[in-house]
Amino acid sequence: MRRSSWTSFVISTLLLAGCAVGPNYKRPQVAVPRQWTVAAARGTAATPIEKDDWWSSFQDLELNSLVERSAEQNLDLQLALERVQEARAARGVARSGYFPSIDGAASGTRNRQRIIVPAGPQKSAVIVPVEYNNFQGGFAAAWELDVFGGIRRSVQAATADMTAAEENRRDVLVILLGDVGRVYAQLRGFQRRLEIANKNIKTQQDTLDLTSARAKAGLATELDVSRAAAQLESTKAVVPTLLSGIDVSIHRLSVLLGEEPGALRSELEKTSPIPSAGPEVDVGLPSDLLKRRPDIRRSEAQLAAATARIGEAKADLFPRFVLTGRRDVRPFNSMISRWAQETFIRLVLVSVCPCSLVAAYVRTSPYRARASGRP
Question: pTM score, two decimals?
Answer without folding.
Answer: 0.76
